[in-house]
Write a sequence for this structure.
């Protein structure tokens, strides 16, 4: 009988020690905070955000699937548009490679993996342009990001 009392005393002591240790070392986690930063402003479905250069949409039959702008600072804005085209990746890539230099853009780099994915980076003064063209089931998807500095 004495041994069982001892066991219960030790169990009680262990519970108290664990409770005190938990109370001393446990800190509730801080509530999750969303990352801060610029917030995109989305254009209505099927429309381009204001100030996006419409001339950069080279397919006259393009279906605009999304567009937004982000203001990073008083001197830097980003305008992005995404559209679907029935043209192939290669055809659109060639159109942009021709259009950009003819309209004052300097092509700084390109990545080609015809026929599934192509990308072009260009600049005009301080302004930057990135164009990504990828294969879609019925043609191509184009994402254009235009950064004005």
């Amino acid at each position: 009988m004495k041994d069982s009392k001892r066991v219960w005393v030790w169990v009680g002591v262990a519970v108290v020690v664990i409770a005190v240790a938990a109370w001393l070392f446990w800190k509730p986690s801080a509530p999750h905070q969303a990352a801060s930063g610029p917030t995109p402003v989305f254009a209505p479905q099927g429309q381009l955000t204001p100030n996006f250069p419409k001339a950069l949409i080279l397919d006259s039959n393009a279906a605009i699937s999304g567009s937004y702008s982000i203001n990073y600072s008083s001197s830097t804005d980003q305008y992005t548009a995404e559209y679907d085209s029935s043209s192939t990746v290669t055809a659109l890539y060639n159109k942009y490679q021709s259009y950009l230099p003819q309209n004052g853009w300097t092509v700084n780099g390109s990545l080609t993996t015809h026929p599934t994915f192509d990308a072009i980076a260009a600049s005009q003064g301080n302004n930057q342009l990135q164009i990504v063209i990828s294969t879609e089931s019925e043609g191509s998807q184009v994402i254009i990001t235009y950064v004005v500095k």
In short: The mean pLDDT is 85. The first strand starts at residue 41 and ends at 42.
